[in-house]
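Help needed: design a sequence for this.
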């Protein structure tokens, strides 16, 4: 079937103020603000109509990190939602009103197949008003992310939802291009974006809650240079949304200090909001130009991929799967952090990592445990249960 030409359109990247809420009722504060920012952006950029909106990670509920404000599982479940559900339906109404695709992420979602735990979930609602894509964050940072990764209960998850690369990293073919999504820490390594590229993604919607500690600003602009690389590698647009500022008693206002951006399929920065404040970025998406660019062989980052030599990297497990099966969700960050001792043992034992002077390979996991013990004894890291 012949495709229709995709006319250039505007994508909005929303950088909002986020309030960390205590329960599901508090979510409406964040939703109301998001909806008004979408209304503003759609109206302001009327000449080249808006067709796509990207929202940051945890835009509805916020999140707590190590220290006095750490979120344990019992805290998160108080603000967990279902997708679809009444909160996402509100965004569906706006999508239907304006003919939009809206992508948001970091939603604390309780999945009916696996009750009593939460997944860090991205969604895309379409112009029909319904959820047309859902993705569960794969690379959850063990030191910060308490949500369940599909990898944490891999066998059970695949049994329910499928285990193919298309099941785990879905891409939807739409009238504005092929859309996929990944979340925050997913973009720190090449694999998730590569999977989306393999599945045909032309636009990667990338919700994030990227902290200054993780390299948002110069001189270590890790957030920006890694995502430019992800876009360049896969010859796709990549739109990254971060918080503008935050309301939470345990965070500085600029905890996740903006720097939302739009990057094109060459890895070129199209627009950026390099400051910790609310903003709505607008970039023009030209899918036909991307498709023409991909017809060239010079610097085409897919046609020269030679996969056979890399198999061992992915057939030898690193972070172990199935550590948090049904009935045993991670209840506090320390449980996920503790698994990293096994990872250290493996990386050092096989010689991939070399220990610092004075340490033997088997000492590194003990060093991590001593740091965990100290953090818990001094109230820096909460204990399980």
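Sure. Designed sequence:
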């Amino acid at each position: 079937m012949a495709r229709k030409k995709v006319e250039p359109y505007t994508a909005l990247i929303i950088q909002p103020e986020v309030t960390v809420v205590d329960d599901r009722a508090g979510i409406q504060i964040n939703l109301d603000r998001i909806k008004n920012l979408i209304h503003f952006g759609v109206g302001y950029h009327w000449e080249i109509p808006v067709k796509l909106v990207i929202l940051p990670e945890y835009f509805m509920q916020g999140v707590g990190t190590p220290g006095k404000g750490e979120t344990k599982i019992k805290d998160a479940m108080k603000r967990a939602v279902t997708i679809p559900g009444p909160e996402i339906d509100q965004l569906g109404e706006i999508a239907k009103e304006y003919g939009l695709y809206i992508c948001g992420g970091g939603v604390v979602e309780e999945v009916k197949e696996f009750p009593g735990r939460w997944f860090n979930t991205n969604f895309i609602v379409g112009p029909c008003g319904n959820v047309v894509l859902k993705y569960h964050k794969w690379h959850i940072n063990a030191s910060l992310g308490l949500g369940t990764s599909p990898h944490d209960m891999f066998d059970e998850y695949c049994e329910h939802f499928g285990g193919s690369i298309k099941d785990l990293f879905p891409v939807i073919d739409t009238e504005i291009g092929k859309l996929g999504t990944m979340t925050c820490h997913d973009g720190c390594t090449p694999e998730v974006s590569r999977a989306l590229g393999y599945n045909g993604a032309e636009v990667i919607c990338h919700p994030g809650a990227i902290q200054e500690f993780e390299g948002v600003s110069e001189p270590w602009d890790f957030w920006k240079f890694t995502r430019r690389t992800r876009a360049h590698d896969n010859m796709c647009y990549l739109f990254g949304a971060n918080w503008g500022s935050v309301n939470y008693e345990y965070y500085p206002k600029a905890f996740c200090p903006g720097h939302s951006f739009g990057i094109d399929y060459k890895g070129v920065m199209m627009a950026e909001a390099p400051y910790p404040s609310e903003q709505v970025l607008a970039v023009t998406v030209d899918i036909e130009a991307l498709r023409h660019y991909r017809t060239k062989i010079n610097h085409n980052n897919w046609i020269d991929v030679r996969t056979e030599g890399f198999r061992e990297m992915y057939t030898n497990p690193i972070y172990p799967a199935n550590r948090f099966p049904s009935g045993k969700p991670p209840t506090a960050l320390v449980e996920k952090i503790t698994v990293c001792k096994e990872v250290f043992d493996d990386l050092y034992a096989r010689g991939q990592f070399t220990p610092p002077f004075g340490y033997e390979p088997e000492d590194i996991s003990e060093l991590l445990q001593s740091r965990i013990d100290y953090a818990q004894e001094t109230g820096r890291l909460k204990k399980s249960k």
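The chain has eleven helices and 14 strands.
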